[in-house]
Design goal:
Helices cover about 20% and strands about 40% of the residues. The chain is of the alpha+beta class and about 80 residues long.
């Protein structure tokens, strides 16, 4: 799939690190599944991944986290 940002590179299934901030909370999430552009490095996420990231951020804010680094939860198919 052609990158929607740079319009030159092709995106490939990969993982990336995402940093989210809200108020006093900074949450770093590693190994997030994404389609990453080989040219510019821009990452695009599926809706369910975005929803999971926002849920993780909401939980961190509610828990009073200031700075935290987490791995994206891996869900194994049964």
């Amino acid at each position: 799939m052609k990158c929607v940002i740079c319009k030159h590179g092709e995106t490939k299934n990969s993982t990336t690190t995402v940093t989210l901030e809200r108020g006093e909370t900074t949450l770093v999430i590693k190994d997030v599944p994404a389609r990453v552009c080989a040219n510019c490095g821009e990452a695009c996420f599926e809706a369910d991944v975005t929803d999971a990231l926002l849920e993780m951020l909401n939980a961190a804010v509610a828990g009073g986290v200031q700075v935290e680094v987490r791995a994206y939860p891996v869900v194994l198919a049964s």
